[in-house]
Amino acid sequence: MNSQEKQGYIDEINYQKKMIHNLIKWLRNLFFLSSLGVLLMYYFSNILFVKIFAIILIIISILAIILVGKAIYSGKKNINKIVDQFSFKYKNSL
C-alpha cells in the first residue's frame, strides 16, 4: 500500500465522519421542530389552523428523524467497513 492510497483512505474516513456530524446537526434541528409542533399543539389547540399545522409539522419531523437516523446508522456502518478494509490492506502490505 503506497502513501497516496493510505492518504485516500484517511481522507475518505474523515469526510464521512464530517458528513455524519452534519447529519447529527440535522437530527438535533428536527427534534427541535417536532418539539415546536408539540408546543403549538399544546398552547394553541383551540385554533384549528394552528392545530392542523402542528400535527403536520410533528408528522413530517418524525418521518425525517427516522430517515436521518437511518442515514447516520448506515454511515457509521460504512465507516467501519472502510476502516476494516483499510486495516486488512495495511496488514497485508507489511
From TrEMBL:
Q: Where are the transmembrane segments?
A: 26-44, 50-73
Keywords for the protein's UniProt record, in alphabetical order: Membrane, Transmembrane, Transmembrane helix
Task: Indicate yes or no for the key word Transmembrane helix.
Answer: yes
Q: What is this protein called?
A: DUF202 domain-containing protein
